[in-house]
């Protein structure tokens, strides 16, 4: 079990609670590759009955068929979801159109009261799920700092976009992970720091999923004739294929593990979803 709750994350929880009353809609940003593990269970309690749109970011890196399965899953749960790539301008237009549709009643009420102000939205999500990149695409500027390390956004900030006024909040993780799977999924997608978990153990967990769901992609990427059942042998075979050899011809499994993890994160193995709906 992994436990942490840095002070700034407790502060973020308070910020969300305090500002919900002044926003019209909440965007919950998830990683399309791990929608289950990238959902903070605290968000449901915080957001409650506020209008919410679930944005499945990095959907371009995920399995297209599994993306559809997640859309159906959230729909059955009563949530509206949209597959996006925060770098794609077409997705920004889709977000705007969906927001207008979902908030049509709010817009009508504002018009009846003579209010011309734009909609106010709040964006929430765990660290490094792509909030800052999405905001920069919405504003067509670089107002929000971005980076490939978790915890880039440190405080709330109101941001003007051509579509709506947007409140950004720092990423919020939950106090503890009872399920080791969640910690592994977050580490594989860079939501938590690599140093918290062993690279080889992470690679074994990744390979366990890939050899079941995406064996052809593995074989093609690493020029393997077969993948077998033993993930340790699979890791060493990939290490040999990639020339990860130390003195004496022994495979450097740590180096091989990092290559596999980096390839997955960059989408070089293929479009992969690590989680599917229950």
Could you name the key traits of this structure?
278 residues; alpha/beta; Rossmann fold; Conserved Hypothetical Protein Ylqf, Chain: A, domain 2; 6-stranded mixed beta sheet; two-stranded antiparallel sheet; 8 strands; elongated; cytoplasm; GTP-bd_ribosome_bgen; GTP-bd_ortho_bundle_sf; Ribosome biogenesis GTPase A; nucleotide-binding
Counting helices, strands and paired strands, the structural category is alpha/beta
Q: Overall pLDDT, averaged?
A: 86
**C-alpha end-to-end distance:** 22 Å
Query: Into how many domains do the coordinates divide?
Result: 2
Describe the strand arrangement of the main beta sheet, using strand numbers.
Answer: 4-3-2-5-7-6
**CATH-defined topology of the largest domain:** Rossmann fold
Task: Give, in order, the helices and strands.
Answer: EHEHEHEHHEHEEEHHHHH
Number of strands: 8
Brief overview, please?
The protein folds into two domains: 2-176, Rossmann fold (3-Layer(aba) Sandwich); 198-265, Conserved Hypothetical Protein Ylqf, Chain: A, domain 2 (Orthogonal Bundle). Helix 8 crosses helix 9 and helix 8 crosses helix 10.
Structure description:
Residues 12-175 form the CP-type G domain. Pfam families: MMR_HSR1. It comes from Thermoanaerobacterium aotearoense SCUT27. This is Ribosome biogenesis GTPase A. This protein is an alpha/beta fold and 278 residues long. The protein folds into two domains: 2-176, 3-Layer(aba) Sandwich (Rossmann fold); 198-265, Conserved Hypothetical Protein Ylqf, Chain: A, domain 2 (Orthogonal Bundle). Helices cover 44% and strands 12% of the residues. It has eleven helices and eight strands. It has helices at 7-19, 41-47, 64-76, 89-102, 104-112, 131-139, 180-188, 199-213, 215-222, 231-241, 253-265, and strands at residues 2-3, 25-31, 52-57, 80-83, 120-124, 157-160, 165-168, 176-177. β2, α2 and β3 form a beta-alpha-beta unit. α10 packs across α11. It is elongated. The protein starts with a strand and ends in a 13-residue tail after the last helix. Mean pLDDT is 86; it is low at 144-154.
